[in-house]
Amino acid sequence: MTDFVIIGGGVIGMMTAWQLAEAGHSVALVERGQCGREASWAGGGIVSPLYPWRYSDPVSHLARFAEHEYPQLAARLREETGIDPEYRRKGLLYLRVDDRDQACAWARRQGKRLESVEAAFIYDKEPWLAEGIGSGLWMPTLGSIRNPRLCRALRARLMSLPGVTLEEGVTVEGLGIERGSVTGVETSRGRLAAGEVILCGGAWSGVLLDSIGMTLPVRPVKGQMMLFHTPPMPGGRMMLERVVLADGRYLIPRGDGRVLIGSTLEEADFDKTTTADARASLLASAAAMLPALADCEIEQHWAGLRPAAPDGIPFIGAVPGVRGLHVNAGHYRNGLVLAPASTRLLVDQLLGRASLIDPSPYRPDRRLAAHGQPASLIGRVSMTTPLAQRLGANWR
């Protein structure tokens, strides 16, 4: 029997496994595909909520902790795996911000650098932006990370740890529960017994818990993105060198000169197909910010599923009514943003350590009660509940 089984091999699941293994515990990480190939791969990698002043304090607290952790986390992964996650701290330019006063007031309260800047400053930073920009906001401390490489580095680190078993290409078919306690999971390769089970299933987390009679209000929200290959520019510069955000869409530069545009917001259940309409919309947004992108090759166009929870606040902690079952899900657009903080918060609880972050705003029992979910539904479950038929092709 292993100490912990983690369901879901995204950034949240992998960081959780890493921390538990380094604390001396045995961990089995179960992933239906390959680790880091769902929402963690599909996102943009900005290490901040897009408009941080529009979020609640619980999200801001996690974001502040995680932003502090990312530089050293990326450096450590590069050293230990040889894979560079490409953490870049080049700042972010906000264009056409309607609630500028609210943004500046938030920055003062948080002690965060956020400056009002004029056209000369903006074009000095990014000379190939569209003409006619009069002013904007500049956050010089903002960083970004190349999330596919972060996922590769985390997976490589886990594979090097003797206490971790990666169960990839494995479907979870049921949760083992006896007399109100979790006993492990049933998978397509057989039973995995465990003392504790942690659900990090992203957009699929609600479906998984529905199989034991619990309604977790986490739903999938599709986001489509594209990647451009850009040519060298005069003076040895790249076409774009820092993140630019306008009208809810963002451009993110990569270290090799590529530029990413994101993202759509679509209520499409578990459908991850890309569409011509989204392609046209993303291209129009990209060209409106950086006109030269209209003539650049689109290398990739993809979609991912964000796990949306009410108010964008994730569920982190023990599942009420089932001893030994825990959840860390519902981060919406900020899974990668909050991962170092939300995983540390849960691991602190699992290991009985004092946490630097107050766990109460994220506790599933409190948040579910606020949404009318009675914990007694869970307490009556005392069997392994099959769920593969509920998930069908979306899970397999």
For the sheet with most strands, the description reads: 9 strands, mixed
Low-confidence stretches: 375-396
- Give the tally of β-strands: 17
Overall mean pLDDT stands at 93
Summarize the amount of helix as a percent range.
Answer: 25-40%
Global shape: globular
Through-space gap between termini: 25 Å
- Quickly count the helices: 12
Q: What share of the residues does DSSP label as strand, in percent?
A: 25-35%
The H/E string reads EHEHHEHEHEHEEEEHEEEEHEEEHHHEH
Instruction: State the secondary-structure class.
Output: alpha/beta
Radius of gyration, in angstroms, nearest whole number: 21 Å
List keywords for this structure.
396 residues, alpha/beta, nine-stranded mixed beta sheet, eight-stranded mixed beta sheet, 17 strands
